[in-house]
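Reply to thread "Modeling small-molecule complexes from scratch"

Following up on the discussion above, here's a worked example others can learn from. I took a protein sequence and the SMILES for zinc ion and predicted the complex. Inputs first:
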Amino acid sequence: MKVIKNNAKRDMYTTQVKCTGRGNDYINELLEKKPCGSILRINTNNIRPIVHIGDINSYWAFTCPCCGATTDLQDDELPLVYSQTKKKVAKKQPEFQNDEDEIER
Ligand SMILES: [Zn+2]
């Protein structure tokens, strides 16, 4: 069987996203990249971690091949494999917190 068009926005390793420049206004302006609004099908190889100045959180982002602008992905836009990874990390987290408590005492 061959899938010609899959209407699902995302699956395990790919996701459909729009080039909006979300979260990256500063760097896109600095590099003179104007988000073009293209709809893209990207996969895990196109997604990289990114941090923003003055923000302790890290995000997942992609760079548009049409215009070169960078856009942050929201949690519900990430390929499903990312949410599975996050669940595993969340399960492990209490162990780390216990270790830290013991060190502080
Ligand atoms: Zn673009």
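What I'd highlight from this example: The helical segments are 25-30, 80-104. The chain has a mean pLDDT of 85. Questions welcome below.
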